[in-house]
């Protein structure tokens, strides 16, 4: 990240959110690479749902299939955990 960002805060909220999300993504991916996990409770299923496929890897399709079987009408936590709407 350029030194300029640390000297003058970003004024555009969209740019600030982009930078914020990239910092989070890089940190979380580093944690996953080191064997860590993401806690997907207390709202994290919304905030970090985009990384669930990376966390669960080959098991993610199984989780998606279980969700479809157990909740065919998608009324339980729709859109959470990276499972779509």
Notes on the protein architecture:
The protein is an all-alpha fold and 85 residues long. It contains five helices and no strands. It has helices at residues 3-7, 13-33, 44-47, 52-56, 60-70. The mean pLDDT is 85.
For the structure shown, list the relevant keywords.
85 residues, mainly alpha, 54% helix, 0% strand
- Give the helix proportion (percent range): 40-55%
Order of helices and strands: HHHHH
The coarse silhouette is: elongated
How many DSSP helices?
A: 5
How many beta-strand segments?
0
The biggest sheet amounts to: none
> Which percent band covers the strand fraction?
under 5%
Note poorly predicted spans. Answer: none
Overall average pLDDT = 85
Structural class category: mainly alpha
Rg, alpha carbons:
16 Å
Distance from N terminus to C terminus (CA atoms, Å) equals 34 Å
């Amino acid at each position: 990240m350029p030194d300029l960002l640390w000297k003058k805060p970003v004024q555009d909220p969209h740019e600030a959110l982009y930078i914020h999300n990239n910092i989070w993504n890089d940190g979380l991916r580093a944690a996953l690479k080191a064997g860590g996990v993401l806690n997907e409770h207390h709202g994290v299923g919304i905030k970090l749902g985009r990384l669930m496929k990376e966390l669960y890897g080959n098991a993610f399709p199984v989780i998606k299939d279980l969700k479809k079987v157990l909740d065919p009408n998608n009324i339980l936590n729709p859109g959470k955990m990276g499972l779509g709407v």
